Amino acid sequence: MEEANEIPKWEGKATAKLLRPTASEVWPLLEDFCTLHKWLPTIDTCFKVVDEDGLVRHCASEAQWCRERLTGMDPAEMWLSYEVVDSNMGLNNYKSTMKVVPIDGGDGLGCQIEWSFETDPVQGLSCEDLAKYVGIGLQGMALNLERALESAF
Question: 76, 89 in Cβ contact below 8 A?
């Protein structure tokens, strides 16, 4: 039973379509948990930190940082989940899943990245603001992934 004073979680989801790369080409770039800075334009650095509770990455830009723990991954289904364990961004109980999905269920040209999240409310933001921030970052990430894969061929 939910307590009367419990604040509901925020939930959001962003998607980005990549027209040329296949899901099987995109997934290996995203499954490398500690190289997110190569793709996500809103962060400058991302690296593995020593942690006894599993794989943790430290991601940062000029003014913001967070530490995220990998909580699950399924390479066959092309998804990974993580949670924020510490940050200066006001993210509390933030959990997220990124998934690469073939367009039309096959592995032909094109795929879609889905990025969903659940978190406690963030002071100074609305759920819509946070969802927009995730969506803008994901669009930039999709563009960077497309460019990297085009230059590889």
Answer: no
Q: At what angle do helices 127-151 and 23-31 cross, to 10 degrees?
A: 110
What are residue 67's DSSP bridge partners? Answer: 58, 86
Note the pLDDT tens digit of each residue in 8-31.
Answer: 999 999 999 998 899 999 999 999
Kindly tell me the burial class for residue 100, based on how many C-beta atoms sit within 10 Å of its own C-beta (0-12, 13-18, 19 or more).
buried
- CA separation for the pair 91, 126 (Å, rounded): 12
pTM of the model: 0.90
pLDDT tens, position by position, 91-139: 999 999 999 999 876 657 899 999 999 999 999 999 999 999 999 999 9
Q: How long is the chain?
A: 153
One-letter-per-residue 3-state SS of the chain: CCCCCCCCCEEEEEEEEECCCCHHHHHHHHHCHHHHHHCCCCCCEEEEECCCCCCEEEEECCCCEEEEEEEEEECCCCEEEEEEEEECCCCCCCEEEEEEEEHHHCCCCCEEEEEEEEECCCCCCCHHHHHHHHHHHHHHHHHHHHHHHHHCC
